[in-house]
Amino acid sequence: MVTLVLFLWSLLDSVIRQFVDLKEGKTNMLIPSTEFFKNLPPKECVKCGDKIDEMHDCYSHKCDNCEKEIH
Ligand SMILES: [Zn+2]
To answer: What pTM did the predictor assign?
Structure first.
């Protein structure tokens, strides 16, 4: 159990270090998640084609209005 915690901690630590390096411009191996999502095309409702607010529900494929119609 202790070994697992230590393993997870070292994993987390290495991830944090990579982000710190990225902030300081030492590496560009990781793309910040904000940049990554900005490059994605906007999600559209499968029913009416309206743009979906991704901050609201990442897993939905329909806009608020169409979701309301079903439920
Ligand atoms: Zn819709």
So the answer is: 0.35
